[in-house]
Amino acid sequence: GASSSSQLEREINGEPHSGNEHYYGLVNFGNTCYCNSVIQALYFCRPFREKILQYKQQLKKSGSQKENLLTCLADLFHNIATQKRRVGTIAPKRFITKLKKENELFDNYMQQDAHEFLNYLLNTVSETLIEEKKAERDRLMRNGTLRKGTVGVFASSSKTDKTWIHEIFQGTLTNETRCLCCETVSSKDEDFLDLSVDIDQNASITHCLRVFSETETLCGDQVLPFLHCSNYVSQPFSASAVRGACIKFGIDLRSQGSPRFHLFGVGRLVPDLSNRIAAFTRFISGPP
């Protein structure tokens, strides 16, 4: 109620580091808690929120009247960010209506998976940005204002285009395996937008990522990458290797600030000569 909101507002105003942040609850339309929780998480992801609000300003300047899931999300974020009061509730009715219209999977009163919705929303936003980029390129080409030197900037395909969604959320997972017999190292890079990690009680995100990237020892038939190893060929059940992962993010998770690389895990597998078990060198690195 109003009294609880006033109490919360007084507590927030007393916080020294709260700045001018807005804390608004989202009205639940029957089963939309999955959607509201994702929107709340994205709103408080500062780089994402800043990009969405910038997009809203671009819409204002262009006078565009288009409506899609991205414009509805931009309107919702703008509505929250421009409220006079710092706490309260907002009904994301327009966004929910558009969501149900765009995807029949969400057009019901069944419980939905928040993770699936997050993936759908991020993919939809990214695809919309790519389509708008292509439309702008086509418009400039029709008007004859696109110079030859800038064609490469606008050239794109849905499979290779990167947007600020990728800048914020995409990371690279480098899986490395080191044979403890021949010391050969194999590695494979995979891009990802999310990771499934085990969450321990009272554990930080950093801790969860470090646990995710811990090494494991492989033995016998598990040592498939090293079939050329003479020890594996002669004694396959005695062969062993160590596998681990390096997680690279395009944004610093500590500050949620400007894009930079934040690494967990391993830059390279370093053999511990005392017991022949490869150990990870963990480090955090940023651009110079």
UniProtKB/TrEMBL annotation:
Domain of life of the organism encoding this protein: Eukaryota
Domain (USP): residue spans on this chain: 24-288
Keyword presence, rRNA-binding: no
SUPFAM superfamilies in UniProt: Cysteine proteinases
GO cellular component, one term: nucleus
GO BP: any one term: proteolysis
Family as reported in the entry's similarity comment: Belongs to the peptidase C19 family.
Name of the protein in its database record: ubiquitinyl hydrolase 1
Species whose genome carries this gene: Angiostrongylus cantonensis (Rat lungworm)
